[in-house]
Amino acid sequence: MMNSAPVPLPDPNPTPVLVVEDIASVQHVYMAQLQKMGLVPHSAENTRQAMALFAQHPYPLVLLDLMLPDGDGMDLIAQMRAEAPHTQIIVITAERMAERAVTAMRAGVFDYLTKPVSEPRLQSAINRALAQIRGQRASGSPSPGAVGAFIGQSEQMAALYDRIRQTATSDASVLIVGESGTGKEICAEAIHRLSPRAGNPFVVFDCSAIRADRFESELFGHMRGALPGAISDHAGAAIRADGGTLFLDKLTELDPALQGKLLRFLQNQKVRPVGSPTERQVDLRILSASDIPQQDAVEQGKLRADLLYRLCVVALHIPPLRERCEDIGPLAEHFLRKFAAQEQRGFTTIPEQTLHRLQTALWPGNVRELMNMIRSAVILNDGDALTLDMLPQISEPPAQNDTPLDALAAFDGESLAQIERRIIEYRLARNDQSVPQTARGLQVAPSTLYRKLETWRATEE
Question: Which residues partner with 92 through β-bridges?
């Protein structure tokens, strides 16, 4: 008698999965597929049931329909991500709007599928999500995972996530500093979503897009007839954000003449719409963002020092992409999945050669540049793998010195303290004497450099 193939043992710790779907027949199909895969499905038919179950057990995997009878699934995503940032959420919905898909992916969902979804397609998405969950468990870091729509588990980003969580519980003003394209608005929204104000508005006020003569109208609002063309009352950003968070983006691009008006508002949080005889008290948390380090912005005359003190109780620095190259792979794969689904392309993998090229690029435009490059490649090509020839021109890394020992000969005969001083003074000169910028490049605290400079000055007097 022939021996039959061995029967695989059941998983002793099967993964629980929450299915949020209001159509009973569709819900049963998903649950049957999950059971066939050896998973343990639980079901909810609306947002209230889903959050009640999720509060009892933060599921590692959720299948979610966005169109629910008692609310918007996007709100549910925000609540779940705030409660358990490591949870993998797969959206399965009849909505085919590209904007909706992009919004969901930015909110941190793992995948976005449109109905009807085939069984192989659903199983593929689930298996990839389970692989992500197993990777988190193996690294021992599921709970401190990414916050909001951030992607990446590098040491620098893990430290940022910790600071965001610590900051979110306070009502203190936060200044978010980072190069263009690093995700400052994503950071601000993550703070808001994790804060006690999460159920109230998050309003973005773009300081670079405001004309001087429209500043008060856009920030404080105006009454009908108060301005040319004002045919109705207009609620400004401060009033729309009442009870929630006001995010002042591109702060250093605000005309210095207007910074005084902003400061007066921040001191008492009272709003008088243009044309109104009365003031209105608002309750806001203020977050702001700058592409320029805070001290540099003051020294360059782009930010008033008294406004900085008001807005920068806590400073958060977002590292540029070139300083966390281990996050480039997960980011590129995320963008490839998102845009392949959006553009109906067949891409599923990034070969090692392509990934290596992405990881060695400079990325002056940071995550936004990487996202746009992947999107361009997906739009103009199709296939299973994103090959190197599909990528547009990538910024080249600097040429390597072939004779590093010759370069070190310049330090021959000098003490370690002398070499350290020469390097610091060289980097300061390269950075226009900016201590914060030099400190970040040398990976030391600015206070360390200030102490050394003071010591050197004292010995020369």
Answer: 113
